[in-house]
Fold this sequence. Notes:
The complex is a heterodimer of chains A (294) and B (275).
Chain A: H1 2-30, H2 37-54, H3 57-80, H4 89-111, E1 116-117, H5 123-126, E2 128-131, E3 134-137, H6 138-160, H7 162-172, H8 174-179, H9 184-210, E4 212-213, H10 218-232, H11 237-256, H12 263-277, H13 287-293
Antiparallel strand pairs in A: 1-4, 2-3
Helix pairs in contact in A: 1-6, 1-9, 1-10, 1-11, 2-3, 2-4, 2-9, 2-10, 3-4, 3-9, 6-7, 6-9, 7-9, 7-13, 10-11, 10-12, 11-12
Chain B: H1 2-24, H2 32-49, H3 54-76, H4 81-100, E1 111-112, H5 119-138, H6 140-150, H7 152-157, H8 162-188, E2 190-191, H9 198-211, H10 216-232, H11 234-238, H12 240-254, H13 265-274
Antiparallel strand pairs in B: 1-2
Helix pairs in contact in B: 1-5, 1-8, 1-9, 1-10, 2-3, 2-4, 2-8, 3-8, 5-8, 9-10
Amino acid sequence: xxxxxxxNGLVNGAMYSLVALGFTLIIGVLDKLNFTHPxxxxxxxxxxxxxxxxxxxxxxxLVSFLVGGVLGVITEWIAFRxxxxxxxxxxxxxxxxxxxxxxxxxxxxxxxxxxxxxPNLPSWxxxxxxxxxxxxxxxxxxxxxxxxxxxxxxQAFIHQTRMGRQIRAVAESPTNAALLGxxxxxxxxxxxxxxxxxxxxAGLLLSLRSASANSExxxxxxxxxxxxxxxxxxxxxxxxxxxxxxxxVLESSLYLFGLGRWVEITVWxxxxxxxxxxxxxxxxxxxxxxxxxx
Amino acid sequence: xxADHLFFAGINTLLAWSVYVVLLSGSLSFxxxxxxxxxxxxxxxxxxxxxxxxxxxxLVAGVFSAVIAFLVGYPTVKLKGIYFILVTLGxxxxxxxxxxxxxxxxxxxxxxxxxxxxxxxVAATLGGVGGLLYLFSLGSWQRICDAVREDELVAASMGxxxxxxxxxxxxxxxxxAGLAGSLYGHYMNFVRPENFDVLLSIxxxxxxxLGGVNNMWGSLLGAFxxxxxxxxxxxxxxxxxxxxxxxxLLILLLRPQGILQFRTLTVKKRGALGS
Lengths: 294, 275
């Protein structure tokens, strides 16, 4: 029972982490809050529906990442390009919020507000594996593995590649980076591409798990990820990863103690407490500071 | 029908003003839906369970919301920008879940039995609140708020109690939202916690942004236009979030200085009057 709930929590937490990572990348590098992010996460599930119908599952993963990424670049172009200055943070947040509204509405016009069920999945996913007397679906392991591979790839990308180095330079100081010949616009496009791709991927995984895509999770699940990002520390990648897993496990242990009604509230109470006690979050280092320590 | 539409336009205007009042001291609050819910349930309990008349119940509900806002606001008032937005979003979700879990006021099922508010009550409230806000904008208090909003350090160095000013605007905003909530509940006769979703708070903030945050008339305009137009143009009603989102985007993009900059005609005129 306990192990089962723990794994459940980890799977949930892994998806929180993926969405929160996207938020934190944009905040850490560009210092902007992207409210279209939860909606792209939501859309990932619908991309999954379409792509699973025509393609085998691994390709669906790739397609949803790419589609999400392209949407992220479009978001950057519409809602963020004009608001680069540091005193237009709130304006950028509001414009992305407006774009998110448009986005959700279009999805709901096409698919309706009810959850749409997924076409049949490969049969191995539904099978269970028995561990210490508890049945685990293979699907859970699949989700965990995909998440951890993505996180690993992201770390490697940020720390090993040329573009990653440029991203870290922009996080340090956009002006200095521009002076050194880095194309800041390109870098922000790349950041938006990656973060939105991760969100869409998480949306796909969530829809695999619940066997349906829901157009209303943007404002519930997605905002929760935003809160988790704040708990972990704005702009800190480790914070987003650990915070997501932590909250996932915390929520499932609440179910274990029969406090299921309070699950929705937990993360927000933790956020408010974090903001009051230590506004910088669990890990206060931004991407830039992480660099100087390493 | 027309009374219905005017009623909701009035409620939305009150909510938009409550956001505007908080914004006077420079904070963007996404918690006005929560304070509306608190006002609604408080007034409902007073009239249905205790048999109070509507007017005192509404006022007490406003004060109740304001007190809660004051208490919640005290530890969070130092937070800025994104951090404040996060906390207010959190308050909205928390209040909704709390309401859903109180059996006394109906829980998820909802709370009913309130009645008595009509479009005239809203018009009167709108007139009262609007008049007070207008008087406020003429006096020196407005300039205190302007100073706090533009630069807290300078304001503090001129002897303004920044924390208190911010707390008072938060509490006043919650008071107005509480009034709106009470009227809303007594008009609808039946409310559920999900009526006060995060989306409501987001919409209200966007009304204010759409109309312009420079003065109180912007909020009035934004709320009225966005509530009434969809009722009369079918296409607008069907595509409401899209139209709404696109118009906000357009406004923000066409005024790249940022809609959140305050210096405007009214400020200049007031300066001329003062000199």
